[in-house]
Amino acid sequence: MIHIKTPQEVEIMATGGKMLSETLHTVMNSAKPGVSEIELDALAEKLIKEKGGEPGFMKVQGYKHTVCMSTNDVVVHGIPTAYVLQEGDVVGIDCGVFYKGFHTDMSESKIIGCKQDTSDKKQVDREQKELFLATGKRALEEAIKVALIGNHVGDISRTIQTIVEGAGYSIVRGLVGHGVGKQLHEAPEVPGFLSGSIVKTPLLKEGMVIAIEIIYNMGGKDVVYGNQDGWTIHTADGSLAGLFERTVAITKNGPWILT
Question: How many Å apart are CA 156 and CA 160, to the nearest integer?
Answer without folding.
Answer: 6
